[in-house]
Each structure stands twice: as C-alpha cells, then as structure tokens.
Amino acid sequence: MSTSKRLGRGLDALLPALDVHDDDKVVQIPLKELRTNPYQPRKHFSEDSIQELAASIREHGVIQPIIVRSVLRGYEIIAGERRYRAAKLCELDTIPAVVREFTDRQVMEIALIENIQREDLNAIEIAQAYRGLMEQFNYTQEELSAKVGKSRSHIANFLRLLQLPEEIKEHVSRGTLSMGHARAIAGMSDAKQQKELAENAIQQRWSVRQLEEAIQKRAEMSSAKKAKTPNRRKDPYIDQIEEQLRNIYRTTVKVKHNKTKGKIEFSYYTIDDLERLLQLLQVEKIG
Description:
It is built from 14 helices and 7 strands. The chain is of the alpha/beta class. The strands form 2 sheets. The protein has a 5-stranded mixed beta sheet with strand order 1-5-3-4-2. Strands 6-7 form a two-stranded antiparallel sheet. Helix 3 (47-60) packs across helix 4 (81-89) and helix 10 packs antiparallel against helix 11 (191-203). The protein is globular and about 70 Å long. 23% of the residues are buried.
C-alpha cells in the first residue's frame, strides 16, 4: 500500500523531512551528545535486530545518516534510533547526521510516522502514541483520524485497549495476546472476567474466534440470570449528556441518575491524564 494511502495528508507532508538528499550537509556528531526522542512511541526494540545492524555497521559503517535537531546541551534523535543504538554497540565515537529544525509537535508526529511505516509498534504502543498526540495537541478522535489516515473507529478501538488491566496490556506488548484477542476482551466491562479469559486464551491457545465464542457464552449466561429482573431502559437525555461530556473531556464519562440524585464518573488512565482532567474541570468551575 502506498504511503499516501496509509497516512493522512497532514502527516504525509512531514515525510520528506525524513529523507536525506545529496545537497544535505552531513556532520559527524559525537554519540555522547545525542539523546533519544522523548516522544518515541516504541518501547521495545528487538535485540537481535540491533545486533544484526551492528554487524553491518562494523563491516560497512553507518551508510544512512540519522536525522536530529539541536537542543539544549546536544542533539535529539528524530529518526534513526536503531542506527544510534547499533553504533553504541560498535563503540563508535561519532555517527553521521543531518541537523534539521522541528517543533515538538512535528517530532511527536514524525516518531509515530516512522514506526507506523516500519510497522514496528505493537498495539499498545500505537494506542499510547494516539493518546499522546490527542493529549499533547488537543486533537479530537476525528482530527487524529484525518492526521494518520485511519478511520475514527480504528482510533477508538486502539484507545479502548488502554482501559484493559495492566497485565493484559503487558501480554499484548509481549505478543502473547494479539490485537484481535485484546479487542474482544476490551468489549467486556468486568475486569476479573477480562483477566480470566485472557489467561484461558493464552494457556489454551485460543484463536480470536474461540475467545469470542467464550465471551458470547458468558454473556448469554449473564443475560439468563438477569432475565428475571426488570429491564430498565436508559434515559435518552442521560445518553445525550454523557456524549456531550465525552466530547468535552475526551474520556469515558458515565452519568448515574435516579429520581432524586446521581453522580458523574470520569475515567482517567495515567497521572498526566488525571491532571489534564483536573485542569479542565477547574476551568469549567471557574468559568
């Protein structure tokens, strides 16, 4: 699939900044003056891949310069962290680089582009990168969808993975659970059942289809238990309020209401996310 079809036009415009041209000035930068991209979404690097690249560098040198930007006390890697890591393994003193100017937003977006293009990110890293872009630059899901050239449902499906228990997210990061397994489990609301089914899927090597069937069976059993209780339909007005609050605060919001009182629950997924919500709520309160 071509690059233009895989990425939105907003990010597609940044891709030329990752290319090195004949007229670019290539400089040798000491490795000790380099630091990695703080917005790098990829947390897991294949040691075997780095070792193979290091072997190639020992024989041929670093053929493709890395891309960096100048920062306080040195340089920050924009593209080429694998080459940097391999060069360190080779105990090189310097590495060829092209210095360019980038804003923080461009650095974060380029980090996502480079990894999506290489398909190096696991599902959790992609979800965290999407959330990071939304939080850092106040993108809505629709705006992010246009940026990365993916559907809004694609973005929403990945973000839902971040609501999973930590141990399940670890399984996805390690590859012991696939994205398909994680999506199926994310559709459940009970954390205990999520963990149980995740463990069953791993231990019994369930396919995604087998996991979905197990989830469906549990849902049918739960429905049978509830059949004897009155079915309370949710107030459409409450649905509308929840939707408005979700759009304003960009997180899951639940409004629980009865005849005389109720409560509003906001979900957050990291301390930074909590602080973002607190700031937004304070603004609303003051305003």
